[in-house]
Write a structure and sequence with these properties.
By secondary structure, this protein is α/β, with parallel strands linked by helices. The chain contains eleven helices and 16 strands.
Length: 405
């Protein structure tokens, strides 16, 4: 289903400086080059080599092969002032999706596609690095640009942090953006506090006792047990979570049975949990297993349960969020403009960076319904309006200038 969010009127780029607007052909070229060679998490060798070659050709100091394929570029301002360090993060991995777009720059790697905009994130970060390097005299402090692998899974932020990308020099704050087809081109979604949800996953196997479908008294029906568990889990959010706190418990998998006249001895299910409030970090695992254990016990079944805390919620620091918002007000000139309450139950491992240092992650609208560039993220026909690329560079550059002012 495509986004039905109304389009902005014609996007005004007069607040994007001419020198950045002139980068648009290169930004498009870089983005499409990356789009044609998509790579899954921790396999981004072609992408990393491309980034490194660009940085090297511009004379930008950088380190490669961090957490497998990650890169950190360092740009030191030459203007007299403070010695603070601002990091900019961009993810660069793709998804295991077969692209359905019929465009000249479609994926050349079967079954792998940039269906979430990370190719655009990387191009924006490269454009930012290029501009800042050639305008070092205009800002003080140091900018670290982090090209991160594996955001889509299994998660590259934590390994990069463990590899000390926020140290030497120590990062004072971090920013990042996500091109967002849930918002039209010419908008920015930014807010203090929770922007994206925690992501937790669970799997459960129910062990019953199989038998003939006509003789149920001799069995323990794993499907009946699983069905009751599925129903009971839906009451967690409505009856155990404060109504003021948004949360989701979704069962996405349920597999059982081999024949219509056989009672299944085993049922397997899996699901995901999402929430904004960090205080709920330990709640869902305990409550879900309590429900599973109780229902299994009442039926004489047993179970195995596995729970994974994948990503914490993305929590923006008020001061850095205000910096981004103030910059967006200067750059974005459309009727919709700034969307302050833009939130999603989607998750992001940018959250690990935000746990370490103050920062802000924000959405940059990239949908254009008139050009049919409004398919949702992770869709085989996902694509975005590339005008957003120059807007992203201008946003980052102004954030750097304001942070060091």
């Amino acid at each position: 289903m495509v986004s039905t969010f109304p389009n902005s009127s014609t996007v005004n780029l007069t607040n994007v400086r001419l020198e950045i607007r002139s980068l648009q052909p290169q930004l498009v070229e870089w983005r499409r080059r990356i789009h044609q060679k998509p790579e899954l998490g921790f396999q981004e060798k072609i992408t990393a080599e491309f980034i490194s070659q660009k940085l090297q050709s511009w004379g930008i100091e950088h380190q490669t092969e961090i957490a497998e394929t990650g890169i950190v570029a360092i740009i030191k301002g030459e203007k007299f002032g403070n010695g603070k360090v601002l990091a900019i993060r961009a993810d660069m991995d793709a998804l295991p999706i077969l692209e359905a777009n019929e465009v000249p720059y479609s994926s050349q790697h079967d079954g792998v596609m940039h269906a979430c905009g990370h190719d655009g994130h990387t191009a924006i970060a490269l454009g930012t690095a290029y501009y800042l390097h050639h305008h070092r005299q205009d800002f003080s402090g140091t900018v670290k640009i982090i090209f991160q692998p594996a955001e889509e899974g299994p998660g590259g932020a934590k390994p990069m942090i463990e590899a000390l990308v926020l140290k030497n020099p120590d990062v004072d704050a971090i920013i990042g953006l996500h091109l967002w087809n849930n918002l039209p081109l010419g908008t920015v979604g930014v807010r203090a506090g929770a922007l994206m949800a925690a992501v937790e996953l669970f799997r459960c196997t129910i062990f019953g006792k199989g038998g003939h479908g006509a003789i149920p008294q001799q069995t323990i029906d794993s499907i009946v047990v699983a069905a009751q568990i599925v129903n009971a889990l839906q009451a967690i959010v409505s009856r155990n979570v404060n109504p003021i706190d948004s949360a989701v418990v979704t069962i996405g998998e349920l597999h059982a049975g081999t024949a219509v006249n056989v009672i299944a001895d085993t049922a397997r299910m899996g699901g995901t949990v999402r929430y904004f409030n960090p205080d709920l970090a330990d709640f869902f695992k305990q409550r879900i297993e309590q429900i599973i254990a109780g229902i299994c016990q009442s039926h004489g079944a047993s179970y195995e349960f596995d729970y994974i805390h994948l990503y914490p919620p993305v929590i923006n620091h008020p001061q850095i969020a205000e910096l981004v918002r103030s910059v967006a007000e200067e750059v974005i000139e459309t009727p919709l403009g700034i969307v302050p309450e833009c939130q999603t139950m989607g998750g992001e491992d940018m959250s690990f960076f935000l746990q370490e240092v103050p920062g802000c992650y924000f959405f940059l609208g990239s949908a254009n319904a008139e050009k049919k560039l409004n398919y949702p993220h992770h869709h085989p026909r996902f694509d975005f309006d590339e005008t957003a690329l120059v807007m992203g560079v201008e946003m980052f550059v102004r954030c750097v200038e304001r942070f060091f002012s």
